[in-house]
Amino acid sequence: MRIELERRPSHSALFSVLSPFIALALTVIAGAIIFSAMGKNPVHALYSFFIEPLTEVWSLHELAIKAAPLILIAVGLSVCFRSNNWNIGAEGQFIIGGVFGSVLPIMFHEWNSVLVLPIMMIMGMIGGALYASIPAFLKTRFNTNEILSSLMLVYVAQLFLDWIVRGPWRNPEGFNFPESREFHVNAILPEILPTSGRADWGIMFAVVATILTWFMMRYMLKGFEVSVLGQSARAGRFAGFSTTKMVFFAFIFSGALAGLAGISEVSGSIEQLQPVISPGYGFTAIIVAFLGRLNPLGIFAAGLILALTYLGGEAAQISIGLPDKIARVFQGLLLFFVLACDTLIHYRIKIHTAERANVAGEGA
Amino acid sequence: MTLIEAVLLTVTTAATPLLLAALGELVVERSGVLNLGVEGMIVMGAAIAFVAAKMTGNPYFGALLGALAGCAFSLLFGFLTLTLVTNQVATGLALTILGLGLSGMIGESYVGEPGVQLEPISFPFLSELPLVGPLLFAQDIIFYLSIAAVIGVSWFLFRSRLGLQLRAIGDSHGSAHALGISVIKTRYCAVMFGGLCAGLAGAQLSLVYTPQWVENMSAGRGWIALALVVFASWRPLRVLAGAYLFGAVTIGQLHAQALGIAIPSQFLSALPYLATIVVLVIISRNRRLTLMNTPASLGQPFVPDR
């Protein structure tokens, strides 16, 4: 058997819409196979993984909590990827954003004001943007591969957070636990609907970022610049767009959103700094960006779906006794299927059996 | 054994997985494919090798299965990027994410359990030589394989006809295709070799380096290996040098921690990653030189027109 691709004359609008859904369906099927292989009833397992978290109001709040950082980061990354800049270090920018935004509530915790929270958010964005500008600087100045440099910085950020929480920022009244002091109430992102669950304003940040980015990509010159430089740097230069400035713009934009996600997570659901503040949001957001086809509106939907895998992972652990790592497996599989199904948009797939392949060979 | 011998021995142990993984990726990239899934293949190799060795009590069987697991995983990448022409960067990342998750699941019930260690094989007489004896002739099989692989890959790439074809594909897949060289088939072989090497590197981690299973025990080595390939400007002997340099940095960092140097341990642990960035900057500064050395088709999708 041989698989052959035939380029479509124009890309298929039908598969553009369908491919994420086909990918999702394939992921569910693969999931059923994995669950069966682990000796669980696949229907029951799939139900508790994908459906159960959606049946109660409080868990919808949890979904929003998990989706908010994913959407924020992925929306930023989509601009980056579209401009052909590969920022793989959003996880690090998320962490540094969280640390930067925590300067005020930890070092100046006596200062109580309604201004604390907005300043924290801005500081978080600055932190993420600064951290992201390191690979951008190295790329534009020294031609350094941004994939590797941004990724190495993730490990550095993780170790930095670990150090600051165990060292200088350790809570003096914390019984020697490796965590910072708990944030003052003015430094905590308020909940949206406190009566029904603990979702905070982070989800609103995600909504706003999605809409603004969508507007920018669709109606503003900057968005056009991103697409042109991403598709052909040469064509972009003829149009007078600067590649160097675009590298910085893309990294700072995505870094700032990742940083905002970081400080929202720290001030919204954790309420203090801990040695680990992210269950891999920065990496999962890459999947979200692709599943959403690098379109902010698609990313919003994709963020909700990937958030579900985190909840499903917790459910799998509690109700069916499977390791929570299964969430990562689902995420990886989903990205594989998304990428594979995207091929359908640009190509027709022809499967030749051995016999037919010979005939085709003779014909050629 | 003297202290110097002991330190050098730990350097080789730290360098071997980097060397193997980078060498495999070097062949992959020479064929024009960029596989960012090295981290995922290493960690899968480590998990499968550990479990297989533990279940059978035979570390050699474990190492073999670990290598095969890396290879099988690379086939998944190959099918997507070569047959379905998906984006190589994104597919490689998917491989890493899947590998970290799957290995965590497989290893979950083995956390904290003592593993099976690959014992060193001593060559009689040679291993009694001062300094070089224990260093070169009393090591585990994966060390010997890594050195053999350097020689083998060097010979293959620059002295054999197939190696020439592979490099031709990496530099211009269009021309190679026009000459009648099978681009896709060769790339599949290269990708599988890369997977085999990365899987073996993982096996080294869980059977030699620290004979136990720890989640995410690859700890970024796959990414460092990718950087090493750039560092080595796609040449096997320079990969050898780079891997040992990084092994030395890693070990130096560990010894500094053990000596209780007044720098916080996290800063020392960050050293290999920072060193990677510094090295990348130094290497890539000269744009002309990098362009000259980089396989020209690297990362480009290839669809043969019929």
UniProtKB/TrEMBL annotation, chain A:
One of its GO terms (molecular function) is transmembrane transporter activity. It is a multi-pass membrane protein. The keyword Metal-binding does not apply. InterPro entries: ABC_transp_permease. The keyword Cytoplasm does not apply. Pfam families: BPD_transp_2. It is found in: Cell membrane. Its main location: membrane. GO terms for cellular component: plasma membrane. The chain crosses the membrane at residues 12-38, 58-81, 88-108, 114-134, 146-165, 199-217, 238-261, 273-292, 299-320, 326-347. Keywords: Cell membrane, Membrane, Transmembrane, Transmembrane helix. This is ABC transporter permease.
UniProtKB/TrEMBL annotation, chain B:
InterPro entries: ABC_transp_permease. The keyword Membrane applies. One of its GO terms (cellular component) is plasma membrane. It comes from the Bacteria. Keywords: Cell membrane, Membrane, Transmembrane, Transmembrane helix. It is a multi-pass membrane protein. The chain crosses the membrane at residues 6-26, 33-53, 59-82, 89-111, 131-158, 188-207, 213-232, 239-256, 262-283. It is found in: Cell membrane. CDD domains: TM_PBP1_transp_TpRbsC_like. GO terms for molecular function: transmembrane transporter activity. The keyword Coiled coil does not apply. This is ABC transporter permease.
